[in-house]
Specification:
The chain is of the alpha/beta class. The chain is 42% helix and 13% strand. The protein has a single domain, classed as NAD(P)-binding Rossmann-like Domain (Rossmann fold, 3-Layer(aba) Sandwich). Helix 1 runs parallel beside helix 2 and helix 3 packs parallel to helix 4.
């Protein structure tokens, strides 16, 4: 592929979670489109290797910033880096995020709060810091990583599904607010994808990840196509679009039931795991009885 001259650079894209998975593919595909890059993630060696490869293959400028977005001051520190490097962000890809599986009451509290910091607070903070500059320049494209889980309750992944519902709602609201400003906001809602996401969340043995999975390159391609067209919400993959078609007509209680079936781990001999809670002991005090 012929290298693009510096004068013809399309703009600068900031991608969080760039060192692996869908974020890695976003970075590669944006580089091929001629965007300079600021790659953000926790794995410094992986970011450095990716930046070097993209500069050599696509002729773009690829810089990186290694930081952990689960630390509350990280977005402010990243924004300071952007200003220090005199960068103007034309495309913001909020890809970083992770999940955890299991009953909410048994989730490790520290990991749970880290997840919400990355999935919700860091996304919100970065948007608030970077968006004013885009509005002032009257151009910019934002893609926020949501999930098909945003459309339903998610037993055994309760906080993760809720975090992605927040991202979807925020994205749709901002898209409305920014109409006519030159800035667009897209919420990308993929289903199960072949990345390290499932291993980290302990989901590899669940029904959701035992079937056919989308490839990260395909998800990134659909997401960037929607972003460049200014679409507000995109659900990746025909199968996932089809699965969500009946959703408006199905009670949320029923949606929660099926979501739980997909995200519980199998028990002995392939059976599904036992109910979360054992039957309550009989009590002579009705006020202590378990509520249905």
């Amino acid at each position: 592929m012929p290298q693009q001259s510096r004068q013809d650079a399309t703009g600068t894209a900031l991608i969080t979670g760039a060192s692996s998975g869908i974020g890695y593919e976003f970075s590669s595909q944006l580089a091929r489109q001629g965007y300079d890059l600021l790659l953000v993630g926790r794995n410094r060696p992986a970011l450095a290797s990716l930046a070097k490869r993209l500069e050599e293959e696509s002729g773009v400028r690829a810089e990186f910033c290694a930081m952990d977005l689960s630390v509350a001051p990280a977005p402010e520190e990243l924004f300071a880096e952007i200003n220090q490097r005199e960068m103007s962000i034309d495309v913001l890809i909020n890809d970083a995020g992770f999940a955890m599986q299991g009953p909410f009451a048994e989730n490790d509290a520290s990991t749970l709060l880290d997840m919400l910091q990355v999935n919700v607070m860091a996304v919100t903070h970065l948007l608030r810091l970077i968006l004013p500059g885009m509005i002032e320049r009257r151009r910019g494209k934002i893609l926020n990583m949501s999930s098909i889980g945003a459309f339903m309750p998610g037993p055994l992944m309760a906080a993760y599904f809720a975090s992605k519902a927040y991202v979807l709602s925020l994205s749709e609201a901002l898209a409305n607010e920014l109409s006519g400003s030159g800035v667009t906001v897209t919420a990308l809602c993929p289903g199960p994808t072949r990345t390290r996401f499932a291993q980290r969340a302990r989901l590899t043995e669940t029904k959701a990840f035992r079937g056919a999975l989308m490839e990260p390159a395909e998800v990134a391609r659909e997401g960037l196509d929607a972003l460049m067209k200014g679409k507000r919400v995109v659900i990746t993959g025909f199968k996932h679009k089809l699965q969500l078609l009946p959703r408006p007509f199905v009670p949320r209680r029923v949606l929660a039931y099926f979501a739980r079936q997909y995200h519980q781990t199998p028990g002995p001999k392939g059976r599904t795991a036992a109910p979360l809670w054992p039957a309550a002991p009989e009590s002579s005090h009705p006020s202590h009885a378990t509520q249905p």
